[in-house]
């Protein structure tokens, strides 16, 4: 019986079967981790630059509304073309839902910025389909495109009410009472619609938490409007 340790083979001596040629068990895991890190980085860039769009909108007053919103729209387009495009390229053609936790924060902030800018310009709510349509040109037509799912869209809308609350308080301070009341109605409508949808959602833990904060924002807007009306009467 031969001692296996003493067997010499041209394949072994040539190094063809050396450890460097053998499959690495953790290679796929390493590749997935690297991809996840790139997705997280891209999501953070989307978050940071979407916040800049929101800050730009808050610079709006009754004297500079058109100018400020034009700048905000340009900033939002830059977020889409520079940062969302990077996220799309990382995720297109893959089971991107598996990495949702990695990119969801950036998507939510992007939805918040887009809907905030859209409301201030047009007075209406930007729909999920409208947002997803802006992402389609960023994708390779031969691959499955990244599309924002309904949960991330609704989570972004929940955050939107916080910005609407700050906007309403600012408009009241500037004497734009009609605009403040419009903001109040808009925020109230969003909250009312979500109270009908959220109880039927499967993965709604985050949404239920945000609904509590959302209600506080709506109440602050309403209280601000009521207080202003009372002061006006007095």
Question: What can you see in these coordinates?
Answer:
InterPro entries: Translin_C (IPR016069), Translin_fam (IPR002848), Translin_N (IPR016068), Translin_sf (IPR036081). The chain is mainly alpha-helical and 234 residues long. The chain folds into 2 domains: 113 residues, Methane Monooxygenase Hydroxylase, Chain G, domain 1, CATH 1.20.58; 86 residues, Up-down Bundle (Methane Monooxygenase Hydroxylase, Chain G, domain 1). The chain has 8 helices and no strands. Helix 4 crosses helix 6. 31% of the residues are buried.
| Biggest beta sheet summary | none
Order of helices and strands: HHHHHHHH
User: Quaternary status of these chains?
Assistant: single chain
Beta content comes to under 5%
Q: What structural category arises from helix and sheet content?
A: mainly alpha
Mean pLDDT: 85
| Shape estimate | globular
Share of helix, binned = over 70%
Q: How many domains in all?
A: 2
CATH superfamily annotation of the largest domain: Translin, domain 1
- Distance between the first and last residues' Cα: 108 Å
Under CATH, the topology of the largest domain is which? Answer: Methane Monooxygenase Hydroxylase, Chain G, domain 1
CATH structural architecture of the largest domain: Up-down Bundle
Family: Belongs to the translin family.
GO molecular function, one term: sequence-specific DNA binding
Protein name: Translin-associated protein X
Subcellular location: Cytoplasm; Nucleus
């Amino acid at each position: 019986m031969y001692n296996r340790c003493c067997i010499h083979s041209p394949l072994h001596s040539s190094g063809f079967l050396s450890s460097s040629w053998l499959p690495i068990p953790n290679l796929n895991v390493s590749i997935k981790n690297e991809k996840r890190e790139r997705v997280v980085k891209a999501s953070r860039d989307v978050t940071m630059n979407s916040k800049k769009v929101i800050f730009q909108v808050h610079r709006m007053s009754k004297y500079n509304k058109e100018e400020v919103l034009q700048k905000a729209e340009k900033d939002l387009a830059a977020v889409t073309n520079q940062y969302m495009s990077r996220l799309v390229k990382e995720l297109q053609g893959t089971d991107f839902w598996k990495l949702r936790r990695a990119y969801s924060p950036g998507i939510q902030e992007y939805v918040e910025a887009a809907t905030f800018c859209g409301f201030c310009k047009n007075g209406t709510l930007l729909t999920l389909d409208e947002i997803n349509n802006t992402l389609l040109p960023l994708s390779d037509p031969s691959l499955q495109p990244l599309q924002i799912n309904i949960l991330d869209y609704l989570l972004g809308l929940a955050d939107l009410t916080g910005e609407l609350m700050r906007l309403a308080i600012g408009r009241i301070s500037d004497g734009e009472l009609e605009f403040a009341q419009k903001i109040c109605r808009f925020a109230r409508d969003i909250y009312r619609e979500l109270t009908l949808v959220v109880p039927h959602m499967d993965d709604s833990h985050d949404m239920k938490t945000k609904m509590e904060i959302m209600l506080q924002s709506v109440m602050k807007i309403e209280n601000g409007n009521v207080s202003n009306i009372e002061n006006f009467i007095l």
